[in-house]
Write a structure and sequence with these properties.
Elements: H1 2-10, H2 12-33, H3 39-68, H4 79-91, E1 98-105, H5 108-115, H6 117-133, E2 140-145, E3 148-154, H7 158-173, E4 188-194, H8 195-203, H9 211-229, E5 233-235
Parallel strand pairs: 4-5
Antiparallel strand pairs: 1-3, 1-4, 2-3
Helix pairs in contact: 2-3, 5-6
């Protein structure tokens, strides 16, 4: 069974092509050799087989898509999912604002060096879970890489995003991550920027930069400012994050 599923996962396009060809042949044979009164029964059976096969292959393709855009450790979306989601949100933005936050765990290298990488993975997985639990269903939480995460917040202005991140920051700093790290306090720093900020920057941009890249860059600049003091959230503005 496992071997069969593995073949289905590797060659769904070949299977679909072969199935289509076989279906055509079977239909021709039914029409030629099966008595007319029985045609309906054979076509119903064939249709049932096609539906079942389609459902099976569809679930496999869905799983493959899920795996491509998911971080294997935390189960969050990965950078590929981030780019896809942010492009979609930026393309359909209208009257509401859109905010992007970049988060970085403070002193994460010390956790790995002191308690080991397995303990570090436990922290990453638990933090991912807490971020997911404390954001809205419409928000996209992704693991950017290493100890960095990103949150895309549609229909949210800067103050709303800042309030959310501050609430999450408070939850994280008081959370007990357990004996794997001797209940050591975990904190994060975050930089947040709004689409309104991006629009203003793009109006003065003479280099025809990619708006998505600029959006991320502005959030990174705010994050850099936050990392100076750590355990804080910094809102991007032109003066302090230039």
């Amino acid at each position: 069974m496992a071997k069969s599923l593995n073949i289905l996962q590797k060659f769904p396009h070949v299977i679909l092509a072969v199935l289509g060809a076989c279906t055509g042949v079977v239909i021709c044979l039914i029409d030629k050799f099966v008595p007319t009164p029985l045609h309906l029964y054979f076509f119903l059976i064939l249709s049932g087989i096609l539906v079942a096969n389609g459902l099976l292959l569809g679930s496999i393709i869905q799983k493959l898509f899920f795996n491509v855009y998911r971080d294997t450790l935390t189960g969050l979306g990965n950078k590929g999912m981030f780019n896809y989601s942010l492009k979609m949100e930026m393309a359909q933005i209208q009257d509401e604002d859109l905010c992007l936050a970049m988060l970085d765990i403070d002193n994460f290298k010390q956790i790995n060096d002191t308690f080991g990488h397995i303990a570090g993975d436990v922290v990453l997985k638990k933090l991912a879970e807490l971020l997911k639990q404390n954001t809205r269903g419409t928000d996209s939480v992704v693991r950017w890489g290493g100890e960095e995460f990103a949150i895309i917040m549609p229909c949210t202005n800067m103050q709303g995003a800042y309030t959310l991140l501050e609430r999450i920051r408070t939850i994280i700093e008081s959370y007990n991550f357990g004996p794997k790290i001797n209940s050591k306090q975990i904190t994060f720093s975050s930089g947040v920027v709004s689409y309104s900020n991006l629009s203003k920057v793009m109006q003065t941009d003479t280099l025809e930069s990619n708006p998505l890249d600029v959006f991320v860059n502005l959030a990174d600049k705010a994050l850099y400012r936050a990392k100076v003091s750590k355990n804080t959230v910094v809102k991007w503005n032109e003066e302090s994050c230039a």
